[in-house]
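Slide 14.
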Amino acid sequence: MLFPSLRTTPDKTALSFGDRELSYADLAQVSGALAERLRGLPRVAVWATSSLETSVAVVAALAAGVSAVPLNPKLGERELAHILSDSEPALVLTEPGVDLPEGLSSVPRHDVEITGGVTDPLPEPDAEAPALIVYTSGTTGPPKGVVLPRRAIATTLDALEDAWQWSADDVLVHALPLFHVHGLILGILGPLRRGGSVRHLGKFSTDGIAAALTGDGTMMFGVPTMYHRIATEVADDPRLAEALRGARLLVSGSAALPVHDHQQITAATGQQVVERYGMSETLMNTSVRADGERKPGTVGVPLGGVELRLVDDAGAPIETSDGETVGEIQVRGPNLFTEYLNRPDATAEAFAEGWFRTGDMATRDGDGYIRIVGRKATDIIKSGGYKIGAGEIENALLEHPSVSEVAVTGEPDDDLGERIVAWVVPSGAQPTEQDLADHVARLLTPHKRPRVVHFLDSLPRNDMGKVMKRALSA
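Slide 15: predicted structure.
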């Protein structure tokens, strides 16, 4: 079973959203009644607001053996139309009272009610049965539907149980959206599989985090934009510092957490944030272990059951573990997706001899720790004969006292091939381009200094806090 605690811990709180909560017994009854309604349908969409209803809808679909398509409530018209055409859901499950966009008018609506009677559990679907279809962000074309089987969800969550010493005693605090792997699979389904509890804040705030972790919260999941807020406030907020100090585990994901933010949080709290690395197609691949060495800027070691290798531009495995040689991450294991929905061409292209080609570039040190240096398409800059990772330069620039946020990209250069471009949100007085170039040349090497600097009021980010570098380049 994906969630044995639905039968074994009836009185324990499973889900809490603000002042609304469900025990495991309540969740079993409510999701069970909805599962009976969904049984036999080919596929359903879930209008994924941050709510009890979204959580119940997904648990019910899983119980019914019906694949669910989480929909980001901020989807634009074109993306929504593409996803609906591609996935063809029989229903859209939604929180009552929510206004749905016109683009969903052709799909029958079913409001999720937090009511239900005692029902007999439905037969457990096969491990390879599709569970969720999560759509990619569509940075290189229309979003692709990643078909995730039940096997991948169970495998990833059980590997994280081992890596993070995750138990039924843990109470997870988070404020992540529920249309994505991080917020939904890890943040909602993870605690339910462990028999623990979730405290969802609805909306992120440092006050909310402090209150929840001062209460019964033991773990926090967040993205770098959240931890950046914490890093800038924690030194001057004793209540926040004390709450974080008492947490068992702080986990960051969905993008790299700058080393400078790591250092500020550790200096104020003594806590070292754990980073992990995953994708929609692979769920979780690596993590810093709860009982292992914390190396800020790394995403740890491969999780149990995950095979990982780095390959060079020709696809040959890189055998060295010197912490310097950059290669593309390829993975294989039971955590992987089944296919891209309706896209056999894209599915075939994503694999090389059974290994999934992530497109993420990284180094590996002598202890096996992986350090992501960027995306192959946007974060590897080939300048003057060197292969340079944007992430290394970003971390260096963030150490400058006048830099609040930064993104680094490359642009064509007749002499160098590509030149390094920094997009900087200043902190206080605006530094000069030469000052920033000299700062990087001093910390790293001269060929890694930015040749062009653009100053911005903010960086374009998606809902998970990732900087949208293609928008910068445009």
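Speaker note: Residues 24-38 form the longest helix (15 residues).
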